[in-house]
């Protein structure tokens, strides 16, 4: 990465730190909730396109690329508020990355690899480089608990507009 990329990435990393902590909480709690039984129903999807057709609460492990959701809050989150992308929403899943190592590499290594994977995938989805974009991203990452108890190796990259809610997909937004 060049110097301006590193500077923006550093600003981005600070802004994303809270989201990353929540993302870690989301993944880890989902494992525990999965063991106990999730209260959330799977999202209602179109049979042909797999797009979410009804707003509702979904287990964080059910999120797929192309899904839209609203921001979550709280220290312990098992479910996420999903919505059809045609409705106003806060963020969208745009890429998935799977770890290939067997042993949990540690929270910092997981987060850094997740950031790198989301950063690399950003321009192909957004239609513009991250440095030129007004959009931002953060990763949902596996925790040590989800890695060991549920064989969770999946990172889900979430894109969002920090200045406003979005209606429709951010795919190819080029902003």
TrEMBL record:
Residues 1-32 form the signal peptide. It comes from the Bacteria. Keywords: Signal. This is Septum formation-related domain-containing protein. It comes from Microterricola viridarii.
